[in-house]
Design a protein that fits this description.
Length: about 425
């Protein structure tokens, strides 16, 4: 009995440009006196103009966390992020590891002392949560005296300060604060020597590195799936219900696993299943993440053909695995199926795509080399899609599954995928 034909096989995957969107992020190195990179400042270059708003702050942090390209934006270095005061209370900051992030706090302009005092509790709370705070040299003015003890970094703009001004400000900063001092906009050897002779040991500017533009790739799930996830989280649904939503949208599943295993989140535990991801992230952070993802998603609620194929694959492999193994092992089978088309979704080789995630060796071996029990299941699922009778019968024989079992599970998987993606 031949398998039902549903879509192209793995060698001719359908292309769907709606799966990904691209944001432009500039990243400039910040180095120490030995010219070793200690961190990067990130700039949002996707906006048409240089407007810096609370919304652009949120978009920048979210993009850095969710970026699906091979050039890591949030690695092991510190990231310096420009902020508006409005964005400092945003829920997006709950999604990052505070120890990895330096928030660059802008001055208030011609601020009255009352306004400085009003902002102080917000800055103190951020510092208590573990965030590093950076200010420019205006924090040394008497108006900002209450902010100065919170400074981890003070930045001096060499394009705006004369040598005698720099000397006075650096001396004052060293006497009145414990902050590390950064010379920024260092564009010449003379400026570097000037800053160095004043005792500054951290530098940023064209003399060391120009901002490198990174095309930050995002996988866009269907808005309908994100809305359903938000609604489930708001009513504090069971983990199993939330897991079902993740299973029906390959883009949603990838984004969550990408986030949970991102260095920027600061988790030390390896997460390999959707159930683990939901439980570790928690409902509060899951809600924040879903709300941010909604703003970056495509407008259509229709699942892509690639995403639908991946969902069917995952469900088919899960059902077949349950014939012989535990639910935990069947969960891994679903992960293999739904991530087996990441190369198409991200327009990059599958091994590079898997480097963006943390997956067990059994999952990696199955996806890259079709090895092991999970590899045999994936080969069988691909044979079902391509109507390859020879591959179908060989895989079925290896797994000791009958044609009736396989075709029954495949029809169930198709029906399940059609049902959940229509909800």
């Amino acid at each position: 009995m031949s398998p039902p034909s549903v879509s192209a096989g793995p060698h001719t995957p359908p292309q769907d440009s709606s799966l990904t969107s691209v944001a432009l992020i500039a990243r400039q190195a910040i180095v120490n006196s030995q010219h070793v990179v200690i961190g990067y400042e990130l700039f949002n270059r996707s906006r048409s103009g240089q407007a810096h708003t609370a919304a652009s702050d949120v978009a920048l942090v979210f993009t850095a966390l969710s970026h699906a390209g091979t050039d890591e934006l949030v690695g092991k270095k510190l990231i310096f992020v420009n902020c508006t005061h409005e964005s400092l209370t945003g829920g997006h900051l709950e999604l990052v590891d505070p120890e990895k992030v330096v928030l660059e706090i802008p001055p208030l302009g011609h601020a009255a002392s009352e306004e400085v005092a009003a902002r102080l509790p917000i800055l103190q709370a951020l510092r208590e949560r573990g965030f590093h705070l950076a200010f420019n040299h205006t924090v040394l003015q008497s108006t900002y005296a209450s902010w100065l003890p919170l400074a981890d970094y003070i930045k001096f703009d060499l394009s705006a300060l004369a040598p005698d001004q720099l000397a006075v400000l650096v001396s004052y900063a060293n006497r009145r604060s414990e902050a590390e001092l950064i010379a920024e906009k260092v564009e010449t050897a003379q400026q570097y020597d000037l800053a160095s002779t004043q005792g500054i040991q951290i530098f940023q500017g064209y003399w060391f590195a120009r901002p490198a533009l990174v095309q930050a790739k995002l996988v866009a799930p269907a808005q309908a799936s994100i809305l359903e996830l938000i609604n489930l989280v708001r009513r504090q649904a069971a983990t199993s219900e939330i897991e079902e939503v993740l299973k029906k949208d390959a883009g949603l599943a990838f984004n969550l696993m990408r986030l949970i295993n991102s260095a920027g989140l600061g988790l030390t535990r390896e997460v390999t299943s959707f159930r683990q991801a939901v439980m570790l992230l928690g409902l509060k952070k899951l809600f924040r993440w879903a709300a941010l993802l909604l703003t970056a998603s495509r407008s259509s609620g229709t699942p892509s053909s690639v995403g639908h194929t991946a969902v069917v694959r995952g469900r088919l492999m899960e059902l077949l695995a349950l014939e012989t193994v535990s639910q935990d092992e069947a969960d891994e089978a679903f992960v293999v199926g739904i991530f087996s088309m990441l190369d198409v979704m991200l327009s990059m080789p599958l091994d590079a795509a898997l480097d963006l995630l943390i997956v067990p060796e059994t999952v990696s071996a199955a996806l890259l080399r079709r090895e092991g029990f999970l590899g045999d299941l994936l080969t069988l699922a691909e044979a079902c899609e391509s109507s390859d009778d020879e591959a179908f019968h060989h895989a079925a024989s290896t797994l000791h599954l009958s044609s009736q079992q396989i075709n029954g599970a495949h029809l169930q998987a198709l029906a399940w995928a059609d049902h959940v993606t229509d909800l």
